[in-house]
Each structure stands twice: as structure tokens, then as C-alpha cells.
Amino acid sequence: MRIELLPLLFGGIVALLGFGLVADAWLPDRDVSVGERRRRQRAERNRRGEMLIGVSIVLLGVAMIGRDQWDATPWIVAIAGVLLAAGAIMNRRWIREQLDFRGAARRADPGAGERPPTRPTPSGERFRIR
Known about the structure:
This protein has 130 residues and is mainly α.
């Protein structure tokens, strides 16, 4: 394999990932029969924003395929950047939820208002955490 073909290969892979995002935004979601397990409602993703992000990734893949040989490559990258920013702004609530709310929820029982009382420690005694 010649090294000149690597940008074509990587550009094709990136473009396929972008097409996957566009298809995910275009196709309807599957109806899941399992009820919601969270107490707080999940943020809905904006399909148009996801499609803009997918199109921007496709454009970046096309720019990688074109390398520096095309005159329009800087314009393609600029348009992809604008579409990526617009898609991220449209999906900012969903992106924030994905980044901030990770891991298991550590909540008390709904009836419990305060923490349980702790045992007073005599001076000099230390508890070991295991």
C-alpha cells in the first residue's frame, strides 16, 4: 500500500461515520417497551442538529480525500466548522447531559430528609476506610 492512499482511506472512513450520523438522525427511533428508570427526564436530542453534525463530518471526510490538491478544500473545512458549531449549539442540552451526568445516581430514599446520625468519635481514635 502506498502512503499516498492513507488520506483516501481515512477520508472514506470519516465520511462513512458522518453518513452514519445522518442516517441516525433521519431514521425514526425504535419504540422501546421498557419504562423510564430515571427520576429526571432525559434531554432530547435535536435531530436537525445531529444531521448538521453528520454533514459536517462528511464534509471533513471529503476534505481529507481531496487533500491539498483541491482549491475548495479550505472552503469545505470552513463550512464544516460552521455546521459543526451550529449542530453543537442545537444539541447543547443533550451534550451537556452526556458529559455532566455520568455514573450511578447517589440519592437518598425519597422519605429520608437528612443523613443518618453518625457515632461520635473520641479524641485520638481514627476510623479506617476499607
